[in-house]
What does this fold into?
Amino acid sequence: MTADPAPPQYGNVLPIHGPAARPAGPPQDLDAEQCVLGAMLLDPAAIEDVAAVMDPADHYRPAHETIHRAIHELHDTGQPADPITLAHHLDRRGDLARVGGASYLHTLVQAVPTAAHAEYYAEIVRDKAERRRLIETGTRLVQAASAPDADAEEIRAAVLAQVTELTARDALSDGPAEETPTGPPNPLYDPAPGLRRPHRPGPTPHPDVFCGWVGETVRELDPTSEADPVAVLVNLLSAAGAIIGRRPHVMVGNDRHPTLIWALTIGPTSTGRKGSATSTARRVLAEALPDFFGPEHTPRGLNSGEGLIEYVKDDDSDTASHANIDKRLWVVESEYAVTMSRGRREGSSLPGVLRQAWDGDSLGSMIRDSLKATDPHIAILGHITPEEFRAKMQDSEMAGGTYNRFLPIFCQRNLILPGSRGASPELVANLAAGWRTVLEDASRVEHVRFSPEAWALYCDAVYPALSDDSAGGVIAQFTARAAPYVQRVAMVYALCDHTDTIAEHHMRAAWRLLDYARASAVHLLGNVTGDPKVNKLADAVRAAGADGLSADQIRRLFKNTSRAERDRLTAELLDQPGYVRTQRPTKGRPTTVISYAG
It folds into this structure.
């Protein structure tokens, strides 16, 4: 194909004179890039087809990337994207001359044989981009290995990290990047020289959750443990809230909320490293306050409601001058599936006692009138595998309101440290000294308040987002207490930062953690939304396994449904963690499919 050359003053726009004019250089196909853009300008449907295959950054020419992103901007706001409207849009931004002028936009349209082949053109562009990335990665590794002072072990680790990153990369992008609950790249999870990180099959927390003193502690401990940083984080928050006690509180309406954070760390037996996360957090806090980490305050085994009350029951002896003064508990249950089974038994008092304990209410037994506990302060952290979690988590249990008091936290081994001996005694002692002061001072706080910025963030963004139950379904029931829970979590973040005022970054960190809990529930339970059609599609995608579900199979699944509706269902499913676009090899062109990678 031929086209008029771009004006000479636009040096970043390559004149199109056929293959013979192509300079030697990295893999590229500028004809295909032009056809992609031209097809998008001719047919709005091509915009969606291209978005399913490639990202604007896959273009070799910077001008083409600028044009591609501008087309998306128009399309996403419901405006037509054609050479006239696009030229006006680029001109207002000052980019029109840089991309080659209005005439070049018309050249793009003229270069397209047919807009129906937009997806095929995009696959060519994507393939060239992947090849360039492979070359760049190889070049960096060669340069690193050629340095005379380079350490061989560090180079080997860097090679492994780069290979892991490349093999974990989706075969196809999901279109323009959008912010999701899993968040942007996080330094605690990103590949880096000298670190061996295994592939992560589930969501990744937003880096904002690692804020303040709690986040600093996690970052200091991270290189010493294979545990998931977010699991270490929730262990610290839960244990700290238990140690601080019931005096500090926030008022949510007319309800008094204490510093109690309950969590379920959910990961595979072999690679979840749930126990490692607890021992990592516990080692520092036990060094700070050894008296708390004995059987009186950290029991194991939730057998029944009465058994839990026994630990914090009132002293009703004749010689007692007051009820048991210290009723703080941090209960770590390493086999929480067993606890859930006990709670489902007919006549079990455990679910009711747990609901009262989370609220901070006084506890009592209908079986033994004398068994009472006034003003308890009990935090619970359970370990469970994904299989047990799915098997035990029934709709009736959620409706009963017991398990929406727990934050589900997906966790996965984050580092490979075959010879690790854990944190050094010096690091543990230094962190413990800080925690000792923080926790002792926090226990003397009473009413925790909000800064104006934090309260504005909560009212304007957090509350509407977390209290929106329009989706319905199991996930909505599981996260029904998210709006008040976020205030509890923000309070503990603030108290651990040596302040009685929740700042904006504390509220944002708590919000991100609640978002991650919801993403974990979606990833683990698979019941995506309250939309039956989306759930039907999710079930079909999971059932298809590694082969995935093609567009034709989706069309047959939803007979008499328009393409626009099928696209909507697919887009909503792809917004959920674990669902991705991939390619299925065929005898001819690979077929784009939707699959579940979780």
Summary: The chain is about 50% helix and 10% strand. The first helix runs from residue 30 to 42.
